[in-house]
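Lecture notes, continued. The same structure-token format from the folding unit now serves as the input rather than the output. Read the line below as a description of shape only.
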């Protein structure tokens, strides 16, 4: 009986944590999309608008996906200086700041992505960014 109670409480806690993470991710996505709409089509960094940056994937030197751009961040001077990237295949979702310096655009057909010299291990070694929870 006691084991069932522990399992039930653990499951409830995991469910609540997942709900909080999803809510934080939803708020982040909505804020990023709103910022992109307000910024409009003007280039924000690398010759791309905020909307184009948000649509981009972060690729390694071989073209393998490392993550998705979740948010564009600006320094005190108002210029884009880093991106919040959700690391590909992380579970639970893991976010890191990736400096804009050194990134290059890579166009393939209708897709415009961002290429980096970083590896998957380099990205994983960056400090995790915790999303604010409600």
């Amino acid at each position: 009986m006691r084991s069932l109670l522990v399992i039930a409480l653990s499951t409830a806690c995991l469910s609540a944590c997942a709900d909080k993470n999803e809510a934080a991710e939803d708020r982040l996505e909505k804020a990023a999309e709103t910022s992109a709409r307000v910024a409009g089509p003007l280039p924000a960094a690398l010759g791309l608008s905020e909307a184009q940056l948000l649509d981009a994937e972060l690729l390694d030197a071989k073209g393998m996906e490392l993550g998705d751009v979740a948010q564009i961040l600006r320094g005190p001077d108002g210029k884009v200086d880093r991106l919040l990237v959700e690391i590909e295949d992380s579970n639970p979702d893991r976010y890191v700041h990736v400096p804009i310096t050194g990134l290059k655009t890579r166009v393939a057909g209708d897709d415009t992505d961002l290429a980096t010299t970083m590896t998957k291990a380099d990205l994983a070694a960056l400090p995790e960014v915790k999303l604010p929870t409600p």
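Point for the exam: The domain at 2-125 is CATH 2.30.30.240 (SH3 type barrels.).
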